[in-house]
Amino acid sequence: MSNFEQYTPGKNPSTKFIVRNIAPGNKRIRVLGYPIGNGLERDLLQIPGVNESTIRSSLLKGELLQKIRSKEIIVVDSDIDLLQFNDDQKTFLTSAGVTKGLEVTGSAIPESQHKVLRHLVHLAEGGGPFDGFSSGAYREINPAGAAFPTSVIWWESSAKLKKILEKTIVYSGALPTSITYEAYDLDGVTVIATSIDTITYSGSFEISRVRTFL
Fold it and tell me: What is this structure's pTM?
């Protein structure tokens, strides 16, 4: 008998985040609202409404972080993108069983470029410039006042002379299907890193996201 507890049908075979209940005392636990029997495993991306962004957020400051710290779960298999985590967080995740998605692999990109890509992810998913950038950054949304903006630009200042990050969004109806992020060099003109997220939905729920670095 398999020790894997299946969720509902419709598993996306391209992405997984499987955890095992290792809680002491033969304890049955709940993770993201779903039960896992002691010693059994679940793919958390099978939970309706849970996507890679949910997992990343929970690993950073939510339930998954706490359950790993309390030694209730370990990560058995994961291939989601975790490039945006810092070195300390990556060390913690490695100790929890994560071996994939922490570094760019399968290419001849040097470590200096890896850092650029990680900074791009931080900028994109953190909402804009963070610690290490000059204060006074200015965000411009286009078209102005639009319910579904197609462009979000972070400028070095309200003078709008140098870009830091530009986010371009393509929609299908009200759902974004492609998001392109471009990070700029100190001159505010030269693009130093680009990533494209291609998003797939089931109804109105995101079920997968593929990130391509150019």
Answer: 0.48
